[in-house]
Specification:
- InterPro entries: DENND6.
- One of its GO terms (cellular component) is recycling endosome.
- With 240 residues, the chain is mainly α.
- The protein contains eleven helices and no strands.
- The termini are far apart.
Length: 240
């Protein structure tokens, strides 16, 4: 016989076994059984991943805090305050294993799979494996890239007076905005930034154009002569 130290957390699925036996007795092509097995493991994998994805999504910042053209956001929290209080994009909360496990009773795989077993222990085992760490790292990278893209989009499409109320800002605050725009422009022009690789090149060009126009308006129309001279000095942004 075959002996293993592996512990089975889930019970055998008798439904798929009966289907496989049925196709075998009817001498159907192997491709039929292959299709059955592929579908079975695909659906099982999806049932396993859905609770992880759901919990991970709950760790993301609310879209209203970084999405462009968000009326709800701009009506409750003007962008000028956002610049002052949040110089970086919103961050993703940490994945807490115990908190995730608590969600399984209500939102576990039993909602999408009829397979019985100790799902919670299976997840506990999975959370300790390199496969989970790789999955989480990949999802965080994807999510951070999306958040940063929306963050840049929001700033690129903001309205200087309606959203930032720049006519009411002090020169120090205006200089802070100019520096913010310069930093974003420099980062967008960086070719190897992993957070920006996924952004379409046309969008990057559009963001750059809008940011440069806004920065020029702030400098030329709102800063003192000394500051205009300082910021209008030829400077080469890094494009490493």
């Amino acid at each position: 016989g075959l002996y293993t130290k592996y512990r089975s957390y889930l019970q055998r699925d008798k439904v798929i076994l009966r289907k496989l036996q049925s196709t075998n007795s009817k001498q159907r092509p192997d491709t039929v059984q292959n299709a059955l097995l592929r579908r079975f493991f695909l659906e099982l994998t999806q049932s396993f991943i859905i609770p992880l994805e759901r919990y991970f999504t709950s760790l993301l910042p609310l879209r209203k805090y970084y999405q462009a053209n968000q009326r709800y956001f701009t009506s409750l929290l003007p962008l000028r305050k956002y610049y002052q209080a949040n110089r970086e994009p919103p961050i993703i909360k940490e994945f807490e294993n115990e908190e995730f496990l608590k969600t399984l009773d209500q939102y576990g795989p039993q909602l999408t799979s009829g397979l019985k077993g100790d799902w919670k222990e299976l997840y506990k085992h999975f959370l300790s494996t390199p496969n989970f760490r790789l999955w989480l790292s990949h999802r965080r990278l994807e999510a951070n890239a999306k958040i940063y893209s929306l963050y840049i989009e929001k700033i690129a499409y903001c309205r200087l007076e309606q959203d930032l109320n720049i006519s009411q800002l002090t020169e120090i605050e205006l200089i802070d905005l100019v520096i913010k725009f310069k930093d974003l422009i420099q980062r967008i022009e960086t070719k190897h930034d992993e957070l920006l690789i996924r952004i379409d090149q046309k969008l990057k060009c559009d963001y750059l154009e809008k940011l440069k126009i806004k920065m020029k308006i702030i400098i030329d129309e709102n800063l003192s002569e000394d500051m205009k001279i300082l910021f209008n000095k030829p400077s080469r942004l890094s494009s490493s």
